[in-house]
Design goal:
This protein is mainly α and 144 residues long. Helix content is 82%, strand content 0%. The chain is built from seven helices and no strands. It starts with a helix and ends in a 5-residue tail after the last helix.
């Protein structure tokens, strides 16, 4: 419910309220993940909430906040993928998270990690056309 409210506040233009609600959802999500670390649904939801918080921070020109939030999303998505390394959706989510982090940090090393993750997604037999577009975009590196 907090995430839905956060999304509504974001869409209405109240980024401060949205940010607070995402932060509360992350706090609750961390408690859920701690209570059941093997539950990948809890972890994926938490990673998504970190990504949403990163987007809000980025709109507020809070680069350190966006970097921290996107970094947390990448860390969680890496864990999720390690639990099910053949899951194409988990590969896709990791690549997308790395792309956001790399766009925020503008760091060459982060782009390299994003590219490696994209290569792995591109090699996946179940990759879709959308996945291939994501791979291509990430492999092109930072936008000028």
């Amino acid at each position: 419910a907090q995430v839905r409210l956060a999304d509504l506040e974001r869409d209405a233009g109240d980024v401060a309220a949205s940010r607070l609600l995402y932060e509360q959802a992350i706090e609750n999500g961390n408690q859920l993940v701690q209570s059941d670390a093997a539950n990948l649904t809890f972890a994926r939801d938490l990673a998504k909430n970190y990504s949403s918080l990163g987007a809000i921070a980025a709109t507020q020109k809070d680069v350190p906040g966006a970097t921290a939030a996107y970094g947390s999303s990448v860390k969680i998505r890496t864990f999720v993928l390690s639990a099910e390394p053949t899951n194409v959706a988990y590969h896709r989510e990791l690549v997308a998270a790395y792309e956001k982090l790399a766009q925020t940090t503008k760091d060459a090393a982060t782009w390299k990690l994003a590219s490696r993750a994209a290569e792995n997604l591109g090699k996946h037999a179940e990759a879709t056309d959308g996945d291939r577009k994501l791979v291509q975009r990430v492999m092109q590196g930072p936008r000028k």
